[in-house]
Amino acid sequence: MFSQALTVRADSIAHHLETIFLFTQNDIRTTLIPVTIFALSAAPRYDPTHAWHAPLWIWFHLLQFDIANQIQDPEEDRKNKPSRPIPAGRISVDSAADIRWVLVPVCLMLSLWYGTQALLASTIFVVFTIWYNELHGDKMGLSKNVLTAILGGCLEVGGTVAAGSWNSRIDKVGALAVALSSAVFATTLHAQDFKDEEGDRLTGRCTLPTIFPKAARFSMMLGIPLWSFVLSHIWKLDVLSTAAFVAYGAYVGTQFVMYDTVGADKQSCKFYSVS
Questions:
Q1: Cβ(76)–Cβ(203) under 8 Å?
Q2: Burial zone of 33 (CB within 10 Å; 0-12 exposed, 13-18 middle, 19+ buried)
Q3: Which residues contact 265 (CB under 8 A, 6 or more apart)?
């Protein structure tokens, strides 16, 4: 009887852990992995024993954002993303909202452990998460890009600090890297909106692809290779590496212009995530 109860309890815990993971599953490839790589590369005093701290800090904040985002319009998710925890019936909106607000002090206390810069990044992240979700800052294309860029910058700062030794602080090189990546996000992040353009039009969400469909696509063809060149120049890459980055950026940007089906846009978005 005891072993049976223990098995049931273990299954219940595993179910809840899987539910929590599913909130962030779609952002593992697009956010967690690239931001972790950024943090490990930009850490001023990198400590190999602290490498796992970066994805931990990033994931907790990503979880906070994703739950806040997914409780806003569960009906839309039932149509477009039924595998998410709420439309799948794994958790109620009220329970998810409780977890969302509990995560705020949890993330702040976690950040306090890493110092003032991580705490500041976490605080700003909380404010802009509310702006993006509860205040519907994601409903406008340019607003969505800028807010997402700021949120991404916060993840990079916090992850970079967490990846360093105790009481590590981001240096000038790391700060420049965060500023540049935020600028790239602010000007090109609508690459992720093309695949959802039809659904956004039906729900009245104003993204750049819904407002300026042709111009938004051409901005990809120009913006991605241009940023590839600018970043290569700033970081003083050799000619061969610069040519490779620019060529790949041009390839990715051209995909958005030449192929405009939903399937093609999903594939182009994956290429964009790599670039």
A1: yes
A2: middle
A3: 194, 195, 197, 256, 259
Contacts of 96 (CB under 8 A, 6+ apart): 23, 67, 70, 71, 85, 86
Please name the residue that has the structure tokens 């967490």.
162
CB 136 within 8 A of CB 176: no
**What distances in angstroms separate CA 141 from CA 29, 189, 273, one per listed residue?**
23, 10, 19
Instruction: Walk along the chain (275 residues) and give the pLDDT tens digit of each residue.
Output: 545 555 555 557 887 888 899 899 988 988 999 999 999 988 877 778 888 999 999 999 999 999 999 998 887 777 777 888 988 888 999 999 999 999 999 999 999 999 999 999 999 999 999 999 998 887 776 678 889 999 999 999 999 999 887 767 888 888 999 999 999 988 888 888 777 777 666 666 777 777 787 888 888 899 999 999 999 999 999 999 999 999 999 999 899 888 788 787 788 787 887 77
User: Cα–chain-centroid distance for residue 155?
Assistant: 8
Question: Which amino acid is it at 74?
Answer: P
Burial class (CB in 10 A: 0-12, 13-18, 19+), 48: exposed
Count of CB atoms situated within 10 Å of the CB of 174: 23
Alpha helices in 189-261 (DSSP H): 197-203, 208-211, 213-234, 239-258
- Six token digits for residue 224: 């991605």
The phi-psi region of residue 179 (left if phi > 0; otherwise alpha if psi is between -120 and 50; otherwise beta) is alpha
Cβ count within 10 A of residue 115 = 16
Does the global pTM surpass 0.70? yes
Q: Which helix (H) or strand (E) holds 34?
A: helix 33-42
